[in-house]
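quick one, two chains, predict together pls
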Amino acid sequence: MHLDAKLPAGPLDAKWARHRAALRLVSPANKRKYHVIVVGSGLAGASAAASLAELGYQVSCFCFQDSPRRAHSIAAQGGINAAKNYQNDGDSAERLFTDTIKGGDFRSREANVYRLSEVSVNIIDQCVAQGVPFAREYGGMLANRSFGGAQVSRTFYARGQTGQQLLIGAYQALERQIGLGAVKMYERHEMLDLVVVDGKARGIVVRDLITGEMSSHAGDAVVLGTGGYGNVFYLSTNAKGSNVTAAFRAYKRGAGFANPCFTQIHPTCIPVSGDYQSKLTLMSESLRNDGRVWVPLKQGDTRAPGDIPEAERDYYLERKYPSYGNLAPRDISSRAAKEACDDGRGVGPGGRGVYLDFAAAIARLGEDTIRERYGNLFDMYAQITGENPYKVPMRIYPAVHYTMGGLWVDYNLMSNLPGLHVIGEANFSDHGANRLGASALMQGLADGYFVLPYTIGDYLASNKLAPVDTSHDAFRVAEAEAKAATDRFLAINGTRTVDSFHRELGQLMWEKCGMARDRAGLEEALRRIPELRAEFWSNLKVLGTSDSLNQSLEKAGRVADYMEFAELMCRDALEREESCGGHFRTEYQTADGEALRDDAHFAHVAVWGYEGPDAPPTRHREELEFEFIKLATRSYK
Amino acid sequence: MSDMKLTLKVWRQAGPSAPGAFKSYPASANEHMSFLEMLDVVNEDLQEQGEEPIAFDHDCREGICGSCSLVINGSPHGPKGGVTTCQLHMRSFKNGDEIVIEPWRAKSFPVLRDLVVDRSPLDRIIAAGGFISVPTGAPPDGNAIPVAKEDSDRAMDAAACIGCGACVAACPNASAMLFTSAKVVHLSLMPQGQPERNRRVLAMVNAMDEEGFGGCTNYGECQAACPKEISVENIALMNREFLRATLHDRDGAPRVAGTM
């Protein structure tokens, strides 16, 4: 596998400007001759599709939801980072860059992260111009809050619905282009294969989820903005439909999959309540601005929280990480919660929970201020648990939230497969081994608004693309394969439902490849996943037909991919013999239980290449060079 | 926590042109389950018995994507105010209840299967004018134009709409006035939305009529059903915007009749 990151030379703060100036352009009159396929309509996909159409390209955009406005970016709560320094607290692109590299535990590319920090300021301007109703101060200026892993206030927000408002902004821009006829939108269509012609990505095969009809779409470039794979764990904060299918099928067609084991476990989610549980609900990290995390000092303390005196509480984040306190980064906060619970000091049913307590903030600021800041989150909590968080502390526990791994891309956001571009959570770039809060929205929109529209033009201008349409054999073959795979699910006629397999796989992954991993557990998972997969293919029960709306059939396709992808994740976790960010191998830790990196052997991106159904995948490396920032042990103490 | 035994009466319909009918199913639940988790369990049981599961739209399951869309005992999103179906928990029901579950019912939202309907008309209303025409590029600094906190907050109240369509399902006229007005009001309150203010409201109201939605006759059912508690005040504000735009009609947007 050829991995050339195409990182520009020169000083860090000049790389993107120089690179951009050197990119080849497509003339305005020629842009309409190019057809770009965008899969996914979240922050990355919608912003890219709208921006490309504005430039004059013909764009087709696909989403599996019934409207592009429903992509899962909509659920992001707390905010979006930008190095505006509006608070005069010393923020800058350099500081956001440093925080992001450090937060990612030195497993991301300097050049990419610096570019992200630079364009972060443009995103806010763009969204304000679109009419996004960001929170404002009385003087009319934009308001900010703080997020984990930062000592400045750089997070912009729209109540607890920042993702919704940013996505609606991008969606409105996209709908405008749809109305103008510049984007052809395909809702309720799921991508089932990537079509590669002469070594270049030239189209996709999709299934219409209403009629079941398979169809092919040819283009000059394909852009995947298809999100992350957190649902491999079954329970996560992702939407039920979020899946790895588009990315995984691109991997099977030759795209490298980078760092699949880098998953983010979010520290503040509502704990599991029973075995019928279908998803986990996040409580925004912004709550840690005012909430204090604690567990009882004593093991097995079953007193009500209000009956436990101050002296018998352990505010463990404040104790262990005094300089960041309750705003320690996500990976560290999650692991600390797990340790407290493993130590028998967890609270609530099953002892898998810790308190997030607002009593001090309510005493200091009053209930009204807290309601204004977090009202919708408090309501959501009360709705789910039946408890009033203004009166009793919230109970929270870590849950799978985001995946830093994804398809490998170069500085131009193109995978090793020419023509295949990958944006947003679906790619691996920028967050290293741990993403900082409020940085996912930033990256999705940076990719879609301000990076891809430039770099894709360079690809189109630099390559002579032979005319290809859907009558090409490659499309016929891919379509027939997709049809056969779909029909195969219906023919098994076994006894177990898709969900029952998905739950079992998810439980296994959570236990063996979750917040803490070790060799023995990963090896066991690598034995058990193929057994479960074999049972899946021989004992699955999917009713109905393939020529109608069939939600079990849709799920079967996604779970089939998870059954293979889970193995890739465990393999990656096993081979990475160090701890970094969200990847914590219990064999590699410091005396006080912090992650122990091995920069000598693992300061690289692990990129997996598919070698066919009967051979193990191959592991390739992109070495990470740290030219501008010194490799150091992260400390939030 | 006590287990409840329930009887569901669910609308089953094999396809857009197939006839539909209610079917009864027994269900059991505990108070911590969400309504959709209760349906998940029913669907697992149905499949084990060889019957196709009940199709329903859902995705985020935290009340923000706007996918879920069930009429429960006659009320869109069920009996509890201010929540979506996915946020409705079974503690709102009691042992022995019979629960009637139907799809959104409106001429403009044809049933695709069981409880799944086609809500694409709402997207087309947005495509007609529910945006600010600002291409990606180099807009002014975010703080260049101050926005009064009161305006931003009121705009956010309207912008909280999740586009689920409960307002349409609740309205005896199947009107989309609450949905349309929420977007018109959000953008007309922002200084950035001023240049297209007249054109926007005329185009969106026109699109709303073309999609076959009914007019507003002030029932107010939409606000009662809205999971985000969007106020009917927005409809009054949109009517004012519409009148203003009709009188001005400066910028060449189509002059439309009716819908006042």
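Chain A has a mean pLDDT of 96.
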